[in-house]
Amino acid sequence: MLLTTIPRVVRPLDEFNVPVSIFSADASIDTVQVQLVVSQNLTVLGVQHQTVVFSKKTGEKDIHFTLRVGEYLGSESITISAKSATYSSQNTTNLPVSAPNPFYTQVTEKELVRGNPVIFSPQKVGLEGSNKAQISISRIPDIQLDDRISQLIRYPYGCIEQTTSSVFPQIYLPYLTDMKPYQKQMSSDMVNVGIARLAHFQTSGGFSYWPGQSQTSEWGTNYAGHFLIEARRLGYAVPARLWDHWLKIAQKSARRVDAKDHRAQTYRLFLLALAGHADDGGMNLVRENYLPNLDPLSRRFLAAAY
Questions:
Q1: CA gap 236, 220 in Å, rounded
Q2: Are 46 and 104 spatial neighbours (Cβ–Cβ below 8 Å)?
Q3: From CA 186, how far away is CA 31, in angstroms rounded?
Q4: For residues 96 and 94, what is the distance between their CA atoms, to the nearest angstrom?
Q5: Whole-angstrom Cα distance, residue 36 to residue 82?
């Protein structure tokens, strides 16, 4: 029997040992030939073939090989075979080679003027196989939308703000850029997962900041509600219980006043109007009694609600 111990993942230019254990339970086995075969991006340091002798006929023998990883990313294979006069065994392992650092982008911008040629001389950055270059021509400043899409799709879930922020912009992506089919599907799946995840934040008074908490986050409740309004408007399926929960809480607290901070209330009044359930009484309450105390953003929320 043959047993190998190989790392689960390696990085370019790594060096590592591969321990190999050969077990014999047959007294007729005395000599075993062990051979190592690797794919192109791996290099064997030292011997690639070893001979193991079982002087006591049965038992276990341990050997090792040393390998170095090349400069490329991808998936490599390691095959180790053991063969005696009567038996043979073989083990093949696929080994991922991944980058040690996150993806990054370098951008060079130049302005085109009629009659003046522009020359770009891109230099390869990063690891071979992970780098690419592209050119974009636009009448408006380039916002690196492709890179932004990738960042959103890989954005980690967490609190209600992170969850909402990861999916809110994605509902508008099909209207801003030509997305590839797999990007459209991945983005749509992410939005639906985000909608479903919001149910884990529900509290008796709205939505919490972290899943499972009982304390309500007024800001998180408003922000999640804003996303649900826009998602519904653009055709995403928002569960009725989730939508009704937010709407009921928003309507119930529409006229609740915090004399020290009116932003949460004016944001809520704006969202109710955006959802088609404007609370005129609450809007008038703020305008007639607290208008001089509103900060600029709260004034805009109230104006937009009207």
A1: 20
A2: no
A3: 55
A4: 7
A5: 9
List per-block mean pLDDT (blocks of 10 residues) for the chain, which spans 306 residues: 89 93 86 93 94 84 94 90 90 90 78 86 77 78 67 71 90 82 85 93 94 92 96 95 95 87 93 95 92 93 94
Q: Which residues of 89-114 are buried (b: 16+ CB within 10 A; e: fewer)?
A: beeeeebebeeeeeeeeeeeeeeeee
Max Cα separation, the chain?
A: 100
| Domain final residue, candidates 64, 97, 130 | 97
Contact 208, 220 (CB under 8 A): yes
Structure pTM? 0.59
CB of 93 closer than 8 Å to CB of 6 = yes
283 and 197 housed in the same domain: yes
Residues whose CB is less than 8 angstroms from the CB of residue 280 and which lie 6 or more positions away in sequence, other chains included: none
Angle at 210 between CA 207 and CA 214, to 5 degrees: 60
Instruction: State which residues form the domain around 20.
Output: 2-97
Q: Which helix H or strand E contains 260, and what residues bound it? A: none
Q: Is 66 found in the same domain as 186? A: no
- Residues 151, 144: Cα–Cα separation, whole Å: 11
3-class SS of residue 233: helix
* Nearest-10 crossing angle of helices 218-233, 263-274: 20
Q: Is residue 105 part of a domain?
A: no
